[in-house]
User: What shape does this take?
Amino acid sequence: MSFANENRAAREYASSALGIMSSTTITNPLDVAKVRLQMQAAAQLGGGECSRSGLSLSTIFSMICREEGPSALLRGTGPAVARAATYGGLRLGMYAPIKRQLARQYHFREPEQLPVFQKVIAGMVSGVFAQGLTHPTELLKVRRQVHPGHGYARQGVIDIVRTMLAEQGIRSLWAGVGPAMTRAALLTSSQCVCYEEIKNICVDRLRLERSSFSTHLSAAMVTGLVTTTITNPLDVVKSYMMIKRHGTVLQCVRQMLREEGLRVLVKGWSASYLRLGPLTVGIFVFTEHFRGVLGLDSI
Assistant: This one.
């Protein structure tokens, strides 16, 4: 690989990391609410309010502010931003280089000419690699965001790591990595490919400017809706495994369905979309900006 290509790959990683870090910082309170909604039944918080089923998003927000103070909505911001810099930068930053490699391998002049299924493959590969490498940062973020009645929430990040290593060994840092990697593959492929395709529709059929905010907003909001619907069931399973450690994925799913039924798979959907919608907008708007600053073409 030439120096120019290495430099380009580094700039793509940097623009993605900066874009996702900026968006993650803004939307972290919604991520806290989403985790709390998903863990109402799973956390088993000794009969506390958060363990009751049927709480709405607005109730979760008011409960957190009333019982823990508004600052609790920032819980887990540190690990979340660290994760954005690593996982986020890798999963989006690797997407374009993988597309270019596929284009060369299959003799396409431009990566944009690739069929949709090959773009999906590029997104899945980048998502799986990024998630597998950086999964411990996601685990720490989730365990910091649970209700303060849970033991993990009362510990700092270093203390959580020490406790996990002492109790279960280094493998505990990759608890739930299976569904997390599946989710990352679906998230990255659907997010990147959907954004690209909808952006093309906005430009080709609706005659919007490719670089305009309205184009970015329209494409990103639809993308957020699609990716939330696709990834929410896996997001719920991943969160359950990270907190309750049910063993295998199938054992976790069986217990979830036995306790709450099929509706558990859409638990937290509204919070997920309210977070993933703005997060997706922020990711692509900020990333497009940083790509311009760093001399890269638009996504």
About this structure: The radius of gyration is 19 Å.
